[in-house]
Every structure is written in structure tokens, then in C-alpha cells.
Amino acid sequence: NQKQKHAFHIIANHTSLPKQKQLLMYLGSMGGTGKSRVVSTVMTFFREKEEDARFKVVAPTGSATALLGENTYHS
């Protein structure tokens, strides 16, 4: 999916910038459109670079967090 690739490339390219500012990015759409897949790919990208402390994933519902093993906004 082109939109998924684009979202990943925004994040991956941002990490290669020297002294980059914090990237705040909203990834939203209807259920079943691949949001969790994009986030999972980003998580893998950072873990492979041993830089997984550089990002935090949160979601508004337990279903998304259960898929990713992360936290809801309020936890």
C-alpha cells in the first residue's frame, strides 16, 4: 500500500537527519487499513537499529495496543 510506505518513509527519513526535532505523527484511518502493520514495521526498524528507546507508541483503545504490545493513552 502506497500510503503505508509513505508513512514509514517519513519516519525512517526523519531518523537520518542530524539533530532532528521530535516527530509527532498521527496515523489514523478506518479499522483494517494497515495502521498496526505500519507501526509494527516502524517498531522493527528501530529495534534492528537498537534504537527502540527513541519512540513511544500509544493508542486510544485496547485492541490496537493488544496487537502491538504497547499502552493506551491513559495507562
Automatic annotation (TrEMBL):
Matching Pfam families: PIF1 (PF05970)
Keywords: ATP-binding, DNA damage, DNA recombination, DNA repair, Helicase, Hydrolase, Nucleotide-binding
Needed co-factor(s): Mg(2+)
Regions that span the bilayer: none
GO-annotated molecular function: 5'-3' DNA helicase activity; ATP binding; hydrolase activity
Reactions performed catalytically: ATP + H2O = ADP + phosphate + H(+)
Gene3D superfamilies, A to Z: P-loop containing nucleotide triphosphate hydrolases
E.C. number: 5.6.2.3
Domain DNA helicase Pif1-like DEAD-box helicase intervals: 1-75
GO biological process, one term: DNA recombination
InterPro entries, per the entry: DNA_helicase_pif1-like_DEAD, P-loop_NTPase
Family note: Belongs to the helicase family.
Name by which UniProt lists this protein: ATP-dependent DNA helicase
Organism, as annotated: Collybiopsis luxurians FD-317 M1
The organism's taxonomic lineage, starting at the top: Eukaryota, Fungi, Dikarya, Basidiomycota, Agaricomycotina
